[in-house]
């Protein structure tokens, strides 16, 4: 459920919003399953991989979840967005309810 309509603005077709909990700029990315994931608006460079060392998660512009790490020495595999629940100081409330009420 998206409850950010009162703070949402659209820039180049991207749903921009402000997290009501911490005030950070976020965007809503539509996943292949037609859900919307709140993600940090800024892009980060990541290095993708599937071993337990890759314990971070990013979402690309297609809404695909990528297992990755931000701690790498090689060239990055690309740039993507961090799910906002990973960075929001109030993310405990996301996990408790299982919903993204931003
Ligand atoms: Zn937040």
Account of the 3D structure:
This protein has helices at 84-87, 91-97; strands at residues 9-11, 14-18, 25-30, 36-40, 44-48, 56-59, 65-69, 78-80. It is mainly beta and 102 residues long. It has one domain. The strands form two sheets. The chain has a four-stranded antiparallel β-sheet. Strands 6-7-5-8 form a four-stranded antiparallel β-sheet, with no helix packed on it. It is globular and about 35 Å long. The termini are close together. Residues 1-6 have low confidence and may be disordered. Residues 19, 21-22, 24, 84, 88, 90 line the site of zinc ion.
Search tags:
102 residues, mainly beta, 4-stranded antiparallel sheet, 2 helices, 11% helix, 35% strand, globular, binds zinc ion
List the uncertain runs. Answer: 1-6
Order of helices and strands: EEEEEEEEHH
**Can you summarize the main beta sheet?**
4 strands, antiparallel
How confident is the prediction overall: mean pLDDT? 84
Class by alpha and beta content: mainly beta
Bound molecules: zinc ion
Q: Give the percentage of residues in beta strands.
A: 35-45%
Could you tell me how far the N terminus lies from the C terminus, measured between alpha carbons in angstroms?
A: 10 Å
What Rg, in angstroms, do the CA atoms define? 14 Å
Shape: globular
Strands of the widest sheet, in order across it, are: 1-2-3-4
Number of strands: 8
Helical residue percent band: 10-25%
